[in-house]
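Is carboxymethyl coenzyme *A placement plausible here? Inputs below.
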Amino acid sequence: MTKEAYTLTSPDGSKSMELPVREGTVGPAVVDIAKLYKEQGIFTYDPGFVATGSCDSKITYIDGEQGILMYRGYPVEQLAEHSSFIEVCYLLLYGDLPNKQQLDRFATSITRHTMLNEGMLRFFNGFRYDAHPMAMLSAVVGSMSAYYHDTMDINNPEARDVFAHRILAKLPTIAAAAFKKSVGQPFMYPRNDLGFSENLLHMLFAVPAEPYEIDSVAAQALDLLFILHADHEQNCSTSTVRMAGSSGANPYSAIAAGVSALWGPAHGGANEAVLRMLEQIGNAGNIKKFIAKAKDKDDPFRLMGFGHRVYKNFDPRATIIREMCHKVLKQLGHTNSPLFELALELEQVALKDPYFIDKNLYPNVDFYSGIIYRALGIPTSMFTVMFAIGRTVGWVAHWQEMITDPNAKISRPRQLYTGPAQRDYVPIAKR
Ligand code: CMC
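Reply from A.M.:
I modeled the complex. Tokens:
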């Protein structure tokens, strides 16, 4: 909806232009600058897209001041309490909560797509024994375009839907295969009699030599973590998926690009970095020293799991996960978790420190998630892979939205060129 307009006038007053303002359902309006360069010959400049909206989206809404996160209008707290990950996947992909029949059909389809082509399984033999699971995940997801040609026509809605189900279903299988490779155990095939998170636990921890009993507490905890990680509007990896997909690249390649973007420690790699940081801190006596390091401008160290581009008050996902930590550790019998105690103490010290208060730095989703993964027996190098399993549905929903948006264009930002002006080539003998 267009409401009022901003008037932009050039410094010498010779040119002026009305910039339309568009309002969404909720949240700040946007100034539409699409015609600015054509009409005024000037670009806007916003490194890191701090104040720039890149698209229209109906999927997820965040209010960073109020700590609100909603998927398709439903507050994440309500979904965390009442829903399941598979139902949230349906909601994100199709826009509304499913009825019973729709949910059953969707869950069955996801279950039936969990197996990998056997050729893909053989890739894992080629990786080094110590390959990082995220390296294997991005490589194998990228390779899916070499196997599933029938779902690569981006203009075919049915092909897009089969792609969506395939990638959601196969991501956990690829993740588990990467884990089995890293521990030198045989790969475990998926089981169609199990739910999404139960099946993942089976593929991660079962071995052919003996029966494996799935812990329902662990499965519930995973399901909840996946709900909380499922989408987060135009974050770095999702924007990467949209950008890669905007060229018309096949969807598997676009998702592989997203996996790679997620890996960085400023994004999904933070959960792994938090655990490594807590281990480095070691005990409460060292907290002061690490807080001082985080505040020191000359030290690259940052308090991992703290701060967020959008949340400037609290991250609602962190609040839920902190509560969940208490519950899961107790239910799994980890009554004494030194890492959790250390994290709680570190959070308290940071929250009282003027540096963190002034800069609005609060614990984010990654601060506590690793503690739960650790309690479930998942190794630190797999934490970001777990994030990727949850976030895949968000990537797919955004890719679908972009592909079907009649106004979508190839993503192609401009720049402020600061290199040399034109100069003449100098032959090598004269340099
Ligand atoms: N520790 C110490 N100082 C920090 C931290 C931190 N974790 N985060 C931000 N700051 C400071 C930063 O130095 C800057 O100070 P100044 O204004 O004096 O230059 C100020 O706070 C603003 O930071 P920024 O880097 O300009 O903010 P940003 O919005 O570009 O970055 C962030 C957001 C999440 C990358 C950053 O807070 C960070 O690096 N946090 C640690 C990594 C982390 O936990 N990432 C997970 C994010 S949540 C999950 C996800 O999205 O994947």
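Short version: The CA atoms of residues 287 and 349 lie 8 Å apart.
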